[in-house]
Design goal:
The chain has 462 residues and is α+β, with helices and mostly antiparallel strands. It has helices at residues 10-22, 35-39, 59-71, 122-131, 146-152, 159-162, 190-196, 231-243, 275-287, 301-306, 330-340, 357-361, 390-404, 421-428, 432-442, and strands at 26-28, 52-55, 76-79, 95-98, 105-108, 113-117, 169-175, 181-185, 205-212, 218-227, 249-257, 263-271, 293-294, 297-300, 317-325, 349-355, 375-384. Helix 8 (231-243) crosses helix 11 (330-340) and helix 11 packs antiparallel against helix 13. The protein starts with 9 loop residues before the first helix and ends in a 20-residue tail after the last helix.
């Protein structure tokens, strides 16, 4: 039995009770013991209180909640994995749709496809596919939800050979702003399908995804750690090395500091081809400068996907800045070297995740994800534990970003914080105008606005 909440008003409380009775899942109000956990996300800088939380069991619950929110003129927000740094999953006074309980997954080994519910995390998705001897491209931290990651693009360890997560999307089940449940694919609602592959959650609530699978069981993967004194030489060699790397190899750079404050450089590699070929390809990178450590070895793909997880414990405060970098120039190396020694939190770091191969060769207009090029996703990922240290961590992050900004173009929408409309347009790039037209067709009233928002096209819109 749902008790009326103080301050919501008797009529609204009655309507919320009606919503709760109509659900297959649960309706949580602030008095419910499960409410606090349900409203929490990984970025502890975000502390917001929705009016109520709908823990959806299926697509019909989503449809019911969307229709109810519009009838009651309530703001909607949507949580799947809760791993978005901007905290768009939760808003004060909103009706929050929580899809995290929707965990169904169905693998078709003959067609090499998988249908996955929107509440799955990368780890859950990867483990299920691994049991069938396959994988589909996803991100790099296993606690991330598949939904937000895919809708924003999905850059991960298989991008060189198999593309982004959105490139492997075959179809999606979507609840639209009018509460309808529809299927989007190349043949059904093709414009919506185009928009879902990089346009974020602007067009509806995706309740399930269908992906192409690939025969990936183990990868040749691991890290090389280098002394800071060798960092400039390693970075310049690395930049030239990866330009000639085969599609099977995907890489990432991390710049970080030890607990004692000593800066370090590491290179992570993932080769998804024959291991003998991988050993040959990686030999120059492993011998150009002697690394402090080298733990590259064959590993099950889901285990590799989980490797960074320990670096993102619950309860930390996060502030990120990001942009795409075409090359590691002398100027960018000099900037990074100067700032790393001043980094205020040993939990923070700067990453350069390589986009190349299959992901880079897709035409920019083929999907809503526009940033197709051989380049790096440069992420300044600041995290710390003590709220009293927020100002210095945020200031350091902003200062480094401004120093690097002249060398970057565009931004990966999944890394974007609350940074204003100009940065939103930079995230969607040249595809923004087409996305705004599709937004007008599927969500003209901008019901789905708790995101990196695309404003519906209107008279005079450009």
């Amino acid at each position: 039995m749902i008790e009326p909440e103080e301050g919501t008003g008797a009529v609204l409380s009655d309507l919320l009770r009606d919503l709760g009775r109509a659900l297959h899942g649960r309706l949580l109000l602030p008095s419910d013991p499960a409410y606090e956990a349900a409203r929490s996300i990984f970025n502890s800088m975000i502390d917001r209180r929705p009016l109520a939380i709908v823990q959806c069991h299926d697509a019909s619950d989503v449809s019911t909640a969307v229709s109810t929110a519009q009838r009651l003129d309530l703001t909607l927000c949507l949580r799947s994995g809760g791993h978005n740094v901007a905290g768009n999953a939760v808003r004060d006074g909103a009706l929050m749709l929580d899809l995290s309980q929707m965990k169904g997954i169905d693998i078709d080994t003959d067609r090499r496809t998988v249908r996955a519910d929107a509440g799955l995390t990368l780890g859950e998705f990867d483990r299920a596919n691994h049991a069938a001897g396959m994988a589909s491209p996803m991100g790099v931290v296993s606690m991330t939800g598949i939904a937000g990651l895919t809708l924003g693009g999905g850059l991960g360890w298989l991008n060189g050979r198999y593309g982004l997560a959105c490139d492997n999307l075959v179809a999606a089940e979507v609840v639209t702003a009018d509460g309808q449940c529809i299927r989007a694919s190349r043949d059904e609602h093709p414009e919506l399908f185009w928009a879902l592959r990089g346009g974020g959650g602007n067009f509806g609530v995706v309740t399930s995804f269908e992906y192409q699978l690939h025969p990936v069981v183990q990868v040749l993967a691991g890290g090389l750690v280098f002394a800071w004194a060798d960092a400039p030489r390693v970075l310049r060699f690395y930049d030239e090395f990866v330009k000639a790397a085969p599609d099977e190899l995907s890489t990432a750079v991390s710049l970080w500091v030890t607990e004692e404050g000593e800066p370090m450089l590491s290179l992570a590699v993932c080769y998804c081809g024959p291991f003998n070929d991988g050993e040959r390809v990686l030999a120059p990178l492993r011998t150009f400068v002697s690394p402090v450590t080298d733990d590259i070895q064959p590993v099950d793909y889901p285990a590799w996907q989980c490797r960074p997880d320990a670096g993102f414990p619950d309860g930390r405060l996060h502030y990120w800045k990001s942009g795409f970098l075409r090359e590691v120039s002398d100027q960018t190396v000099e900037i990074l070297m100067g700032f790393l020694s001043q980094m205020p939190s040993a939990a923070s770091g700067v990453g350069l995740q390589q986009m190349h191969g299959a992901a880079s060769r897709v035409p920019s207009s083929a999907t809503a994800f526009a940033h197709r090029a051989e380049q790096y996703d440069l992420l300044i990922l600041s995290q710390w534990d003590d709220p009293a240290e927020s100002d210095q961590n945020i200031e350091w992050t902003r200062s480094l970003f401004e120093a690097l900004r002249p060398h970057m173009a565009g931004v990966y929408v999944n890394n974007l914080g609350d940074e204003g409309s100009e940065r939103v347009r930079a995230a969607y790039g040249a595809n923004y105008t087409r996305l705004a037209e599709i937004k007008r067709a599927y969500d003209p009233r901008n019901v789905f606005n708790a995101n990196q928002n695309i404003v519906p096209a209107g008279p005079g819109t450009s």
